[in-house]
Amino acid sequence: MKLQNYTLRYLAVTLLLVIPIWAGIFYVLILDEVYDNIDDDLKNSKIIIVRHAFADRKLLNSPEFGINKFTIKPLPKGNYHTKDEFFSTKEFMEYDNDDEPIRILKSVFKDEEGNNYELIIKASIVEEDELLQDLFLALIGLYIMLVISILVVNHLLLKKIWKAFHVVLDNLKEIKLGTGSKLKAIDSPIDEFNTLAKEVEKMLNRNESIYSSQKQFIENASHELQTPLAISINKLELFAENSTLPEEQMIEIGKITDTLNRLTRLNKSLLMLSKIENQQFSEEQEVDFNKLILTLTEDYTDLAEFKKVKIIITENDSLFFKMNKGLAIALISNLLKNALIHNHQEGFVNFVINKNEIIISNSGNNAPLNSAVIFNRFYRHTTTNESTGLGLSIVKSIINNYSITVEYIFTGDHQFKINFPKK
Amino acid sequence: MKILIIEDEAGLREVVQQSLEKEKYIVETAHDYISGFDKLGSYDYDCILIDIMLPNGSGLDLLQEIKKQKKQSAVIIISAKDAVDDKVKGLDLGADDYLSKPFHLSELHARIKSAMRRNNHNGDNLIIWKNITLSPEQRTVLIENNTLILNRKEFDLLYYFIINPNRLINKTAIAEYVWGDHTDQADNLDFVYSQIKNLRKKLKESNAEIDIQAVYGIGYKMS
Q1: What ipTM was predicted for this assembly?
Q2: A62 has which bridge partners?
Q3: What is the CATH code for B127-222?
Q4: For FRET with B67, which of A97, A283, A341, B129 sits at 20 to 30 Å CA-CA?
Q5: Which residue of A has its CA nearest to B179?
Q6: What is the CATH number of domain A191-277?
Q7: What pLDDT digit, counting tens, does each position of A210-256 carry?
Q8: Which of A223, A271, A303 sits opposite B191 (nearest CB)?
Q9: Strands A320-323 and A285-288
């Protein structure tokens, strides 16, 4: 769920709770104020009426509510306490054809002669049910408007505010160590985002430098190993040549030499890998893959014949791709070599060249390879001593430098499909 | 034949020197840029092996110096850096060959011989071993004036043996020579074995005075 929707959800629920509570309080307060106001008004009316009654004695006899909305009734002699009495009641109103709430002031006053009169003044007041209803409707309106405005504000403002954040997010998605990926700059008035962007950049730079020094380390280590390897191999060669050792010991020397040779191959493959990853094969040209495959298979014809493996090339289209020639050769020859080696007598290697893909399939073991790990470094399907386990990782690191993909499919034959980007 | 080795690693310098002296070369050595520079100025050599990374200087600068002095020596660069740049630069500067460490001694001999042969424009370029005459340029083999037909790989093999007579050649060295960099599988060694078998057969049939012996576990020796 997106951040803005997430906050909106909580805001909507909170508002749903807060608004009725607020409405309740508001209702009570307003009603209280309204009654207070009306009562004050009634008290005021009483003063005016009493004053008029003193001036015009006719008023002292107004037993019915007329347009004046008050009555004055003489009371029998006696002692009445003259405190004002307020209460609410209902009265039929013609206009509404319904009982409507009214407020009544009941009071007793004396004229100059000491006669008691009862004064009742009424005033219509708010209809509580209608007020409630109106308030309810207004509140629903308010609620909807609030949610909509939050939505709009969220959408417009937050989108603008969070834009910087999304840039940082996109940056993070695009980061690929070792490719020198550059971060897009953000332009935000918000400190947190600026800090975030700055920290991400710092972190990336730190990781880049660790990554490159690690790669550099592998490359340097491989380089440094070359000379001691050369000395060991050459000393052994000279020793074997100069000495007249019994056969068993010569065989042992042979085994040591073989091991050193294997170490050399391993070292060379590692060096190749780190060079590819360090992008030291930067020179690019249009490579004619049809021609390349023909040349490479030609190179391997003798070995294929020796293994009695048939190489068949099907050219459905011509395939050109701009890349480093050496890497193109390494890519195809590693796969071809694999196909030849993990094959059996009387087997086959098929090349199919299509517009944007090359499919190399070969006969071999009947069990599929585990496609999740075959491109890993030092993964060996078989435990042959001779294999460095780096051939397919070299393939992988080559394609990582370009927008090429390789997938392994098992259809009874082992298939490697190289997908080139569509032009 | 006089060879100068300019290499800072004592171990490598010694073993190369011993191996070359077995071939009856006169070998001199230098261990850094300055001593290399001195030797270059004082003597003429038929072939110079230069390591690129030297104490107090670069082998490439020495190479430039050799070319400036218009020396006729064949120059082979030996480097632990298998960098394409260095290789191209070295060859551009006039080196005859580039060999990356580690190498087999038989490969070094082959390179030295072909570099000197190419460098020696006025001599004939045929290689002769007993009754076998081999022309590296024409890629032809004559045995007592009879042409022996060999396929590409068989020719390469024979050339490698004849250029390394009486030396114990590691089977991996042969595979690498015949196969270039593609060698990393046991299959190739089996393949080399079968190619050598075929070559032996052909040589025997045409009465070539050559003996290619297998040295079990290590490789082959031609005599």
Answers
A1: 0.85
A2: A72
A3: 1.10.10.10
A4: A283
A5: A299
A6: 1.10.287
A7: 888 887 788 788 888 888 999 999 999 999 888 788 888 888 998 89
A8: A303
A9: antiparallel
